[in-house]
Design a protein that fits this description.
The complex is a heterodimer of chains A (427) and B (299). With 427 residues, chain A is α+β, with helices and mostly antiparallel strands. Chain A contains 22 helices and 11 strands. In chain A, β1, α4 (42-57) and β2 form a beta-alpha-beta unit. In chain A, α11 (197-209) crosses α21 (388-403) and α21 (388-403) runs antiparallel to α22. Chain A starts with a helix and ends with a helix. Chain B is an all-alpha fold and 299 residues long. Chain B has helices spanning 2-41, 60-66, 69-101, 107-113, 116-119, 122-132, 139-147, 160-188, 192-200, 205-233, 237-243, 252-262, 266-291. Classes of the chains: A alpha+beta (427), B mainly alpha (299).
Chain lengths: 427, 299
């Protein structure tokens, strides 16, 4: 009762003297908010890093967790940013979004000059620069990798595959043998097959590894309807129901990791973050996992992975841009990236960290796969600009329909080409 | 005589308007204004990134919409979903309502218990079902394998046909209680003398149901079906949580949202939203005329 009356009284005072109340809540206005991803141990690592800066600077920071699906996260950001809201000051932004969201972020070029940025991967800095303005600072980079069960490959006398054909053969053999031995849930390969941005990454890797290009080339021409791309999708469609469960068509990163980490799959396509989790103490496959670059398509193909990764950007609508920039500088610094690499296998965006002995000790594959990280294939987000999302949606829908057997690869890519050509008038 | 009547009518009309005005103002603000704005935006090329810089493009958005197979796919999905799920819910709801209408021990408790699926927030139950339908660790496949219904786990969420079946099953689970409750309310208002006559005449209970209960229940049943149909036609949350933007199960609302938010194409998305509104309006008119709802009092 008493507290009720106090609230009423306070309300009355507030109503009478509006200015007093605007002033009365300084803590809320002085707080920074950062959005972090929550895939695997992402959120915990982000919270630790943010807490360390918060202690050092004395500025309280709230960590907002966002949806796991990158498509969902983009939709959320678009709604917040389109309304000009300053609720979130620092955004964790995907490498493919500079064209879509760039207008909402401040130019960081003054705080991060060329000398500072020369320590980072040049390709990422270039990707994050829109019309000469540096919109976001690379935080961690990602590339699609092939995880395999080293113990099973050794047991059945296989080397890590270098072509998709080898992978298919090895997966078929081991899956059949393991199932016959009583491991009825054994699968050959799991990947991200749900109809979302992750499928675009997976499918682009198949297509590119067969020499089928990047959907849209650098000049903006739609190139997806070619025999190599058809061959790549035919190969992948053949996996469904044989070495991959049909349910893979509903998997995102975490579902695939769930199956692989529980010991139910020989191979998995995933991002580097899965390494630390697969080798954690509570993981059933600890010390049984190996990782290599993704296979190539046929003898003339190319081993590659799609470039992923996340950046930090400061919202134009933030009331505390100065503090927000400081937080970004701290989180993307050498020391903080080193900590994240060792604890979570998050790939640094600073080249020198790939020679750091402690980092290499925790992630032996960083050194071996350095070239894969540097040469990762980018999705056509720069050339398609604000239309990228539509291009990607059309692509993953076409691939999804092929994988679930609704249409053949040939039909679906011809149809996709027509749809993309229509969109191409706008980029 | 006639003059006094008009005076009275006028006075009654005036007070009726007085009572209605607040409601009309609120409706215009929360429903009329957004609707008008959506329709207006549907004739422009507005973009979410910068809503101010929009231009009038006439019927261009509607032209594109009419030729987009994905749109027609989503219309078909929505209608299919609505017809199948509402039919099943009506039959099941009617059966449950008839059972609950009888007197037995623990009836109150049971009535409260069947409402639980309806009370759980859709997003929560949809996610819950999503996990239960999972092909590797889902409990539904586990049960089917255990009972021997199948030897291979089914990919409920990935197979185009099964995923629609899964969505409909969850919707039936969730909204049958609502249907049952509405029908039960109707049952309890039925006049008892008809039943007594039927009993005295020795009519078979099944005949009583089809000749007495069903005709008397028709108005209540129609209201319940209309409610559910309108609800199902704008289906969004359940399908979106379980299936996302997949074309196999995409409804009209999901299509409109994807255009509006994912593609930032406010103009085109508004055109889709306007068509959703019009399709629902058409369904309502058909129901109201065919069912004769609102005419019972005069008859």
């Amino acid at each position: 009762m008493r507290s009720d009356r106090n609230v009423l009284v306070l309300g009355a005072i507030c109503g009478a003297t509006l200015t007093l109340c605007g002033h009365g809540s300084p803590t809320a206005a002085q707080e920074l908010a950062i959005s972090c991803g929550a895939v695997g141990q992402e959120l915990a690592l982000c919270q630790e890093g943010v807490a360390a800066w918060s202690e050092q600077s004395g500025v309280p920071v709230t960590v907002v967790s966002t949806p796991n699906s990158s498509s969902e996260r983009l939709a959320l950001y678009q709604q917040i940013l389109a309304s000009g809201s300053g609720d979130i000051d620092v955004y964790q932004v995907d490498v493919i979004w500079p064209g879509i969201l760039g207008t909402h972020f401040v130019d960081l070029g003054a705080d991060f000059d060329e000398e500072v940025m020369s320590a980072y991967f040049p390709s990422l800095v270039q990707n994050n620069t829109v019309n000469g303005e540096l919109k976001m600072i690379p935080w961690f980079t990602d590339v699609g990798l092939l995880y395999y069960r080293a113990d099973l490959l050794e047991q059945y006398g296989h080397e890590p595959p270098t072509t998709w054909e080898e992978l298919t053969a090895a997966a078929e053999e081991i899956q059949a043998a393991e199932r016959a031995a009583g491991n009825s849930r054994m699968q050959g390969l799991v990947f991200q097959g749900n109809a979302y941005e992750g499928l675009t990454c997976n499918a682009l890797e198949w297509v590119y590894s067969y020499g089928g290009g990047t959907i849209v080339d650098e000049a903006g021409e739609v190139t997806i309807n070619n025999p190599e791309a058809v061959a790549a999708l035919d190969e992948a469609a053949g996996w469904i129901g044989t070495i991959s469960p049909q349910g893979v068509l509903a998997y995102q990163e975490e579902e695939a990791r769930g199956v692989f980490q529980a010991g139910h799959s020989v191979f998995m396509r995933n991002w580097p973050y899965a390494w630390a989790l697969a080798n954690a103490d509570d993981s059933p496959v600890k010390d049984k996992v190996g990782v290599v670059a993704l296979p190539k398509g046929g003898a003339d193909g190319q081993r590659t992975g799609v470039l992923g990764g996340w950046n930090l950007a400061v919202s134009k609508y933030s009331d505390m841009q100065e503090e927000a920039v400081e937080l970004v500088a701290y989180l993307t610094s050498y020391e903080e990236q080193k900590r994240r690499a060792i604890e979570g296998a998050y790939n640094p965006t600073i080249t020198a960290l790939y020679e750091d002995p402690q980092v290499l000790d925790a992630n032996p594959f960083f050194g071996e796969l350095y070239d894969t990280f540097v040469n990762a294939v980018a999705r056509p987000s720069s050339v398609t600009g604000t239309r990228y999302n539509q291009v990607s949606t059309e692509f993953w829908n076409a691939v999804h329909a092929t994988l679930n057997g609704t249409v053949t690869a040939e039909q679906s890519l011809a149809q996709l080409e027509r749809r993309l050509d229509r969109l191409a008038r706008n980029w | 005589m006639a003059r006094r009547e008009t005076e009275l009518t006028r006075q009654r009309l005036r007070s009726a308007w007085l009572f209605l005005t607040p409601m009309i103002v609120v409706l215009l603000m929360v429903a009329g204004w957004p609707l008008a704005r959506t329709i207006a935006l549907s004739f422009t090329d507005a973009n979410l990134a910068d809503l101010q810089a929009r231009q009038f493009v006439g019927l261009l958005n509607y032209e594109f919409l009419m030729t987009d197979p994905d749109w027609w796919r989503s219309v078909w999905n929505t209608v299919f979903f609505t017809v199948v799920s509402v039919s099943i819910e009506t039959v099941l709801g009617l059966m449950i309502a008839l059972a609950l209408h009888e007197h037995f021990k623990g009836r109150g408790l049971l009535r409260a218990a069947i409402l639980i699926p309806w009370a759980i927030p859709t997003v929560v139950s949809a996610q819950m079902w999503r996990w239960m339908f999972n092909d590797v660790y889902g409990v539904i496949n586990e049960i089917m394998l255990f009972v021997g219904l199948t030897s291979e786990p089914w990919a409920w969420l990935a197979d185009p046909q099964l995923s629609m079946a899964a969505v409909i099953a969850v919707d039936v689970w969730k909204t049958t209680p609502f249907m049952a409750l509405l029908i039960l309310a109707g049952l309890q208002m039925l006049p008892q003398d008809c039943y007594e006559n039927a009993r005295i005449d020795g009519v078979h209970p099944v005949t009583t149901f089809f000749r007495v209960t069903l005709p008397l229940l028709k108005p209540a049943l129609l209201v319940a079906i209309i409610f559910r149909t309108l609800d199902a036609l704008r289906m969004f949350d359940l399908v979106y949580v379980m299936q996302g933007n997949k074309v196999d199960t995409m409804t009209m609302s999901i299509y409109a949202r994807q255009q509006l938010v994912d593609f930032q194409d406010v103009g085109y998305g508004s055109a889709a939203a306007t068509l959703v509104f019009m399709i629902i309006a058409v369904f309502t008119v058909i129901y109201l005329t065919a069912g004769g709802v609102g005419r019972e009092e005069k008859a």
